[in-house]
TrEMBL record:
Keyword Transferase: yes
Domain Aminotransferase class I/classII large: 15-291
Top-level division of the source organism's lineage: Bacteria
Gene3D superfamilies, per the entry: Aspartate Aminotransferase, domain 1, Type I PLP-dependent aspartate aminotransferase-like (Major domain)
Protein name: Histidinol-phosphate transaminase
Keyword Transferase included in the entry's annotation: yes
Lineage, top ranks: Bacteria, Bacillati, Actinomycetota, Actinomycetes, Micromonosporales
GO molecular function, one term: histidinol-phosphate transaminase activity
InterPro entries: Aminotrans_II_pyridoxalP_BS, Aminotransferase_I/II_large, ArAT, HistidinolP_aminotransfase, PyrdxlP-dep_Trfase, PyrdxlP-dep_Trfase_major, PyrdxlP-dep_Trfase_small
Cofactor: pyridoxal 5'-phosphate
PANTHER family with a match to the protein in the record: HISTIDINOL-PHOSPHATE AMINOTRANSFERASE (PTHR43643:SF3), HISTIDINOL-PHOSPHATE AMINOTRANSFERASE 2 (PTHR43643)
Similarity comment: Belongs to the class-II pyridoxal-phosphate-dependent aminotransferase family.
Keywords tagged on the record: Aminotransferase, Pyridoxal phosphate, Transferase
Length: 349
């Protein structure tokens, strides 16, 4: 059937990258500007001040904290630790960087299908073998936004042998508002093969500075530090992250605003007949199947950029209220031009 035409429009609203829609706080801007006076000098390769601040924030010793140029850099190091020829198990669909890392590093990927858009941890545990050296759980999951609670995580970890490292990727943790959403750091003392990754790119609004961190056992952290590139985290990035930790109360107020917008956007989409799983991240997921590409192009013609996974679905970042309104208007126009049965897997009218 013919794909509906929409008005051509240059993309002006970017809802594809899961960034914070809020501008940096003035204190953070001032901190970055001040640290710019020293850019002729190398940054602290140990990220000492930031490491101490994170250790204090999470109530752990500094030797349990690894800092990297975004959590992606730490994920890369974890895949490197697994080593060529090893197996890594993770859900699919999940963060698209996992298979890229595995492929570049000669690691076999064991992709376990999601169940109702969420991790099937029982099936993941069943896939772990003697060659499995890494299991990655994106929680909340990117791109579906679904959450695995601590009870299910414990049951999974009880089945994982100590030879397999478990990486809990909590890039979107701050957006969790469910009671079961206590972070995985609470489990690190019980399971020494567990590491938890967080980032300053999302809730803290420092995506352009690239800062992430990991909490884990000292022996794992020491290995990661040995593998890290020197001076990978810039001085302005380190200073901004320390400043952001001191401004958490204000930043988390912004997070609550995003959560409120997420609730509003999902409710409007559900009212329009879309299927949208409950999200605990700063985005929502539309499992549109074959209609993912046409829907993404429709929104692009309305000036809205989404993250399209052809043949599977569309991830929509939660933006400013005006950006969200523009997206909802485009989605509604799509809805009225298509029969309800085409909203998930049917052909476009």
């Amino acid at each position: 059937m013919r794909e509906p035409a929409g008005p051509p429009h240059a993309v002006t609203r970017v809802l594809s990258r899961n960034e914070s829609s809020h501008s940096p706080l003035p204190d953070i801007v001032a901190t970055v500007a001040a640290s710019g006076r020293d850019v002729n000098r190398y940054p602290d390769p140990a990220c000492a001040d930031l490491t101490l601040a994170l250790a204090h924030r999470h109530g752990v010793e500094p030797d349990r904290v690894a800092v990297g140029a975004g959590s992606c850099a730490l994920l890369q190091a974890l895949f490197q630790l697994a080593g060529p020829g090893a197996t890594a198990v993770y859900a699919w669909r999940s963060f698209e960087y996992y298979p890229v890392l595995a492929g570049h590093l000669g690691i076999h990927s064991e992709q376990v299908p999601l169940a109702d858009d969420a991790h099937d941890l029982t099936a993941m545990a069943d896939r772990i073998t003697s060659t499995t050296r890494l299991a990655v759980i994106c929680n909340p999951n990117n791109p579906t936004g679904t959450l695995v609670g601590l009870d299910r995580l414990r049951a999974f970890l009880d089945r994982v042998p100590p030879t397999c490292l478990v990486a809990l990727d909590e890039a979107y943790f701050e957006y969790v508002d469910e009671p079961v959403g206590t972070g995985g750091m609470a489990l690190c003392d019980t399971y020494p093969n567990l590491v938890v990754l967080r980032t300053f790119s999302k809730a803290y609004g420092l995506a352009g500075l690239r800062v992430g961190y990991l909490i884990g056992a000292p022996r794992i952290v020491a290995s990661l530090r040995e593998m890290s590139l020197p001076y990978a985290v810039s001085g302005p990035a380190q200073h901004a992250a320390v400043a952001a930790l001191g401004l958490e109360e204000v930043l988390l107020t912004r997070v609550r605003e995003t959560i409120a917008e997420r609730t509003r956007v999902r409710a409007a989409l559900l009212a329009d007949g879309f299927t949208v799983p409950a999200s605990q991240a700063n985005f929502v997921w539309l499992g549109l199947g074959e209609n993912a590409g046409p829907f993404g192009r429709w929104c692009a013609r309305a000036g809205i950029e989404l993250r399209v996974f052809d043949g599977d679905g569309v991830r929509v970042s939660i933006g400013s209220p005006s950006d969200n309104d523009a997206f909802l208007a485009a989605a509604h126009q799509w809805r009225v031009r298509n029969a309800p049965e085409s909203l998930t897997t049917g052909a476009v009218r």
